[in-house]
Amino acid sequence: MALPEGLPGDPAAEIDALAQRVADAEMYLDMAAARARRDELAQEAARPDLWDDQEQARTVTTELGRVAEVVDRFDALLRAVGDAKVLAELVREASDGGSPDESLAKELVATIETLRTRVGRLELESLFSGEYDGRDAVCEVHAGAGGTDAQDWAEMLLRMYQRWAERRGFAVEVDEATPGQEAGLLSATFIVRGRHAYGLLATERGVHRLVRMSPFDSQHRRQTSFASLDVTPFLEDVSEVEIDEKELRIDTYRSSGAGGQHVNKTDSAVRITHEPTGIVVAVQNERSQHQNKAKAMQILAAKLAERARAERQAELESLGGERADNAWGNQIRSYVLAPYQLVKDLRTGMETGNVDAVLDGDLDDFMEAELRRLRGS
């Protein structure tokens, strides 16, 4: 039987190898403990008096949802491995019987490729050891040195992370975008919602360098420009953060964003400045001033919580990350479009010549390499 290109010589052996990796992951991720904790939380959530203490009830239901999601995803992968074994057997029987089924074989190719991806993501779970790695992420893109090219680069970075999030099935909320003077963006704030969004995006925190033939230079000369990404874990419940309203300067203004490309138009954008720390948060995409203020307060509280943790515990300094000038010499990664094509991470040494794919959100390999470097594996 002539099988489609990409099918392993022995599909059953390939699936068995993937099944063994899943079995190994079940041990080091301690799925038995996760199942026990899920059942314990489910019993607690079923108590009729649970909501007598609303704060405790929210804690229980939130953890139950998180643990149940972990168990359900793992069990779904186990079922997928079993289904793949059955499909491989059907393909083998059809081939041995002299009636090869090309459509089944193609389905097996796709199934094995999907399994490889899912198993790889499962193994990545072991690299998330930070307290907040499982959270959603508040991200900020800022244009750095390079004038209009840097502002255009900031907009390209925003799109890159939006596309990355779409690839993973994550949701993205752009809460504020300040347009550049001629093109692009001066800055943008967005929230990425998805499992381990913070743990993944924290690996991207830093200065990103772009080298290309400038579309804004009349002589089309090569230009180097910089933009940075900052990432903070997003806390849905920020009740533990005390904010004195007297320490806030709250300004309201009409949105001057780029319209539907980035944000929804609104006449009630809100900018909050926390005067003791100088932290500034702006939100403009909600429907009302009240909603914009509420979202801005959430983001501010998350930033203040991060600051407090970094000050309180030296080992959590990585949450805030090292602040460096958004310019030459401080980049974590270079994106070269001319005179050759190359994306290279200066921390891990990982590189690729497929610049277009990276700018279209193909970042998982870079993120995993940095996670492994940070974990020493």
Tell me the layout of helices and strands:
Blueprint: H1 11-28, H2 31-45, H3 54-96, H4 102-124, E1 136-143, H5 147-168, E2 171-179, E3 185-193, H6 197-201, E4 206-213, E5 222-234, E6 248-253, E7 269-274, E8 279-283, H7 289-312, H8 317-320, E9 331-336, E10 342-345, E11 351-352, H9 355-359, H10 364-375
Parallel strand pairs: 4-9
Antiparallel strand pairs: 1-3, 1-5, 2-3, 4-5, 6-7, 7-8, 9-10, 10-11
Question: Would you write up a description of this structure?
Answer:
The two termini are 42 Å apart. The chain has helices spanning 11-28, 31-45, 54-96, 102-124, 147-168, 197-201, 289-312, 317-320, 355-359, 364-375; strands at residues 136-143, 171-179, 185-193, 206-213, 222-234, 248-253, 269-274, 279-283, 331-336, 342-345, 351-352. It is α+β, with helices and mostly antiparallel strands and 377 residues long. The longest helix has 43 residues, at 54-96. The protein folds into 2 domains: 11-127, Release factor (Methane Monooxygenase Hydroxylase, Chain G, domain 1, Up-down Bundle), CATH 1.20.58.410; 137-375, Alpha-Beta Plaits (2-Layer Sandwich), CATH 3.30.70.1660. Helix 1 (11-28) runs parallel beside helix 4 (102-124) and helix 2 (31-45) crosses helix 3. Strand 4 and strand 5 (222-234) form a beta hairpin. An 8-stranded mixed beta sheet has the order 2-3-1-5-4-9-10-11. A 3-stranded antiparallel beta sheet has the order 6-7-8, covered by helices on one side. The chain is built from 10 helices and 11 strands.
